[in-house]
Amino acid sequence: MINWRSTFAIYRNELSRFRRTVFGSIVSPVLTTSLYFIVFGAAIGGRINEVGGVGYGAFIVPGLLMLTLLSESTSNASFGIYMPKFTGAIYELLSAPVGVAETLLGFVGAAATKSLILAAIILTTAMLFVDYTIAHPLFALVYVMLVAASFSLLGFILGVWAEGFEKLQMVPLLILTPLTFLGGTFYSIDMLPSPWDKIALANPIVYLVNGLRWTFYGQSDVSIGVSLGLTLAFLAICVVVIAVIFRTGWRLRS
Amino acid sequence: MEPIPQPILDIRGLTKVYPGGLKALDNVDLEIRKGEIFALLGPNGAGKTTLIGAVCGMVRISSGTINAFGEDLARHWRSARQRIGLVPQELGFDMFDTVERQVGYSRGLFGRAPDAKRIEEVLRSLSLWDKRGEEIRKLSGGMKRRVLIAKALAHDPELLFLDEPTAGVDVELRRDMWRQIGALREQGVTVILTTHYLEEAEEMADRVGVIDKGRLLLVDEKDAMMRRLGRTEAHFALAAQLAEIPSALRDYPVTLSEDGRTLCYRGGDGTGKGKAEVAAVATALVQNGVVFTALDQKESSLEDIFVDLVERQGLAA
C-alpha cells in the first residue's frame, strides 16, 4: 500500500527546491525560448512560407514546447535524485518506509509538475510573439503530461546512473537536445530531401514533436496513434527499469 | 517468574560480503533489548556502519535474518522503518534548505502527519529553535550534527541508531549530546550507538558489543564486562632497591622491575577487589619495613579492555 504522506513529503520537498531556484528554473528556459521565437519565428520565420497551412512562427511552437519539456523534465528529475546521492542525504530516503511507488510519485511527479508549469509559461510567452491555436486542448494537455512524466522517469534513471555532474549532463546535452533539433522542431519531415526524410523517422523525437503538433494543428508528419503508442511504450520501459533498480538496489544500496 | 521480554532487534547469522569479496559482517548474532543503550565498539572498518546499514536498509545483506519489533524486517520493512531512526556518520542533507523545513520533511518522509508542536519540541530540545529559519549551510558543524539528530527524532522512533554521533564535535557539545541521549532513554527510546570514544560507551551504555573484522567478539553488560575484564594496576616506587619480592607479598599478583626499584601490582576484577589488594600490599610493605616514595594506581578502562580484546583477536587470527 502506498504511503501517501511520504509521497507528498518528497513531492513537496522537491517543489520547495524548485521555488528556491525559481529565477534560474523559469527565467532561463523562458529567455531561451523567447530568443527562438524572435530569431526563428519573427526574424527568419517572416521569410518562410507557411508549413502545411500554418504560419512558420506558429508551426515551431509545439516543437519548442517539446524541446523545453524534454530537457526540463529530464534534468529536473535527474538532479532531484542525484543531489541526495551527491550530498549523502540519500541515506534518509533509503532508510524511510518508502518504496518504488512513493519515490516515483514524489520525485517524478514533482519533476513533471515543474515541467508543466514551465510549459504553461512558455505557451503564454509564445502568445507575445506568434498567433497559434490548439485544436485539441484536452488531448494536448494529456500528451504534454505523458511526455513530462516519461522524460522525468528517464531523468530519474539518469540521476541514479550518474556518478558525477558530467554524466548527469551528458544525455540531455549530447543526445536529447541534438535529437530534438533534428526531430522536426523547426521543420516538417516533408521538407527534407530523400533519403534524409526516411532516416529522420528513426529519430524517436520526431514522433513526440509530431504528436504534439497534431494536438495543436490537427496535422503532422506521422500518425498520432504511432506517437501516442511509442510514448506509452517508452513510459512503460522506464517504469520497468526503475522497478528493477529498486529491486536490485543498483547504484543506490551497497 | 516474569517472562523474558522480546528483543526489539534480533539479528541472526548476519553476513555481508561486498562484490569485491570483502566480508564486512561475518555471521553476526545480536539481540537488542527494549529501552537499553547499546554501544557498538570497533576500530575503523570493523563493520559497525555496515551493521547499521543492514538494519536501516542501506546495505543489502548476503545472508542471515533481522527481526525488528518481533517481525521479519525483510517482509515488514515498511512498518519497521517507521519506528526506526538513523543519525548517520556523515553530514548529509540539503544544505540550502532551512532547519525547520528539513526536520518537517523527515517527519513526513517517515509517514507521520505534520505536527508543528512536535517539531518545535524536537528543535527546542536540541537548542535549534532559534536557528529554525536558518539555512543549514550557515550553521556550525556542531549545529549541523544536531540537525541530523533532529531529523532522526522527527518521526518519534522507538529504535534509534547513532553512527559515531559525536565524531568531530567539541567536548562541550559531546557532553550535551550525551545528555540528549540520556533523555531519550528516559523516554523509552532504545539507542544503538557506534563510537570510537570509549569514554562515550563507558558513560552511557548499558551494554557493550565489540566488533572487529566483521565479527562480534563480545557482548556483555558494561558493568559485568568491567567486572570480568577490569583490572587494577598499581606501581610502588621503592625508596631502596629490592633483590626479591618480600615473602609476605607472595600471594598477591605482584612483580618486581628488573632494577628492583618498582613493585607492580596487576590484579582485581573491577569489583573493588583490586583496590583492596593494593591497600593490603601497601600495608604489607610498611609492616615489612619496605619504604615506598610514590604510588601510582589506575583502574583499567573500557578502552583498555577493548584494545586488549582486539589485540588478542589479532594475535589469534
UniProtKB/TrEMBL annotation, chain A:
InterPro entries: ABC-2_transport_permease (IPR052522), ABC2_TM (IPR013525), ABC2_TM_bact-type (IPR047817), ABC_2_transport (IPR000412). Keywords: Cell membrane, Membrane, Transmembrane, Transmembrane helix, Transport. The keyword Transmembrane helix applies. It is a multi-pass membrane protein. GO terms for molecular function: ABC-type transporter activity. One of its GO terms (cellular component) is ATP-binding cassette (ABC) transporter complex. Its main location: membrane. Residues 20-249 form the ABC transmembrane type-2 domain. It is found in: Cell inner membrane; Membrane. The chain crosses the membrane at residues 21-45, 51-70, 90-110, 116-134, 141-162, 168-187, 222-246. Belongs to the ABC-2 integral membrane protein family. PANTHER family: INNER MEMBRANE TRANSPORT PERMEASE YADH-RELATED, TRANSPORT PERMEASE PROTEIN. This is Transport permease protein. It comes from Pelagerythrobacter aerophilus.
From TrEMBL, chain B:
Coiled coil: none annotated. It comes from Pelagerythrobacter aerophilus. The keyword Iron does not apply. The keyword Cell membrane does not apply. Keywords: ATP-binding, Nucleotide-binding, Transport. PROSITE patterns: ABC_TRANSPORTER_1, ABC_TRANSPORTER_2. This is ABC transporter ATP-binding protein. One of its GO terms (molecular function) is ATP binding. Residues 9-238 form the ABC transporter domain. Gene3D superfamilies: P-loop containing nucleotide triphosphate hydrolases.
